[in-house]
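Run log, item B.
One chain of 653 residues. Sequence copied directly from the ordering sheet:
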Amino acid sequence: MTRRAASADTRETDDGSGAVRRLAPHARRFLARRSGVLVRLALWSLAETGQAFLVGQGVARAVDQGFLAGDTRRGLLWLTVALVSVLLGAPVIRGVFAELAGLTEPLRDGLVRHAVDRSLGSAAAGGPGGTDRAAVSRLTNQVEIARDSFAGLVLTLRSFVFTAAGALLGLLSLHPSLLVVVLPPLSLGLGLFLVTLRPMAAAQRRALAADEALGDHAARSRAALRDLTACGTGPAAARRGAELIEDAAAAARVLAGWAAVRTAALGVAGHLPVLALLLAVPWLRGRGVTAGALLGAFTYLVQSLLPALHTLMTALGAAGSRLLVVLDRIIGPERPEPRPERTRAAEPERAGGLGSVRALAATRTEPALAAAPRPAPGAGGGAVTARATAAIPRPGGDAPHLGGRPADRARTAAVELRSVTLSYGVRAEPVLDSLDLCVAPGEHLAVVGPSGIGKSTLTRLVAGTLVPSGGEVRVDGREVTGRPPAELSALRVLVPQEAYVFSGTLSDNLTYLRPGASRADLDAAVDALGLWPLVERLGGLDAPVRPAELSHGERQLVALTRAWVSPAPLLLLDEATCHLDPAAEARAEEALARRPGTLLVVAHRLSSAVRADRVLVLDGTDAVCGTHDEVLDRSPLYRDLTGHWQGGPARRR
């Protein structure tokens, strides 16, 4: 939502009287259906009128007819009457709260039903992607605000009306002149407070709108996080978020300003009547007001009238304005949902957003493979206090022969690490320390080791998304550090454990890294990876895909097929088959190994290591590389892992 639209919306909704007119029919119908509850509530509240009346009368008569007249017993008797009237307030409050539930709970239930009906209607009318994200706020935060505000408002209005009636009747019965002194400052403070109600409601409405807009932006940004990273539009989304935060802060400041005015009105109404009564004592005494009547008047003010007024003004200023705004947003006329400024990053979230998907694919980079940042503590494979040292020998000495594939020494290594060290902090123990590794073109390498030892860190270093603390990482003879994402995506594809699938067609997802792929290429990829059952279930390659409706294994198959289609010569699988069953995993890895290029797999099962040409074992103190049988002989850790995978002791073959 642009600032112009926001300001227009503010102008349309700032008039609090409009909200009152819209809500009045609903309120009348709601209260008319609960007239019995209102009658019982009024009967309980009448007791508060008597209580307020008796407290002041008891003090006045105790002084005039008792202590000043020399009759201590009568004075104590009247004080006892005042005390009993105060104590009787407890069962009255209990009865009031028992009846209050008959109003608040039906209100809450009705608001929840209305919010759900509106949200479902909006989603049904808008189709896929047409969900109302503000509905979460209405169903949770705003409904509870309305319920609590309504309960507080009923309590305070009821208390003020019946308590003020008792106190004013008591002042009139003591002496009419007391009302002449007390009512003007009381009315002044109350009037000043009422003047602030409408702008206070407008400020509250703007604060709620800003909160909803900020929550909507956060939800959209979270859903499109990978796209934001892939397109480089994260800074724009961050700037928009900062603008919304500033709008919310500005609305909060305006609200605080009107709250200060309300506090001033509260001070006028709460302190001026007492001060006026003190200043008017000589005049009142001259008109025949007794000392007991003066003490009774002070009792009415301090014990009954002013506390009730203070509570009323607090409730109307806070709960009342909140209730008006929230009810208008829940059951008032439906307003267009705030829509954030659309960026390229948000487009793939729409089903059928083909043009944007192709624009994204033109970068030919997985969303997780943006520019390589410096490692942060706790990222990657985890800060492990162990070292993976030693050069990794090629099997067969100087003339390696890997898995039946003769290696041409004149060809550039597909992957080469030269004394690579990585640590997540200046004083942290390195995760990898002086690691040397050479992977030939066309080779299939499996990386194994205990959890957290640095396997994922190694794949991210090779992918160029982590910068080594020392040493050099080369892919196809080119150093990856500092290379732009578009160049990196032409060299390698990294498929992480959490596969990325976006809203769009299945074809869009598979051609994400190769927009020009032909239908024959897609058919071959789908056939090689065993994706046909999913294709048929969805309705073909051009059928829309909704990521939330796919299982973890299906998302991984889509990502693996996308990697098969990619023209990049190096594939990095970081436990990218962990959600597949063993048969599907074997088929996927064998298909990717047959694909022209090099394959590096972080093994999830023993079968992955057995299928590879070589196995690299990272164990925290040493690094061993060779064929499955060679590593089984040389690495105790690998023998332990093999026994764990097989469910028993490892056997040398």
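Observations after the first pass:
- The longest strand covers residues 415-422.
- Residues 176-223 form the longest helix (48 residues).
Flagged for discussion on Thursday.
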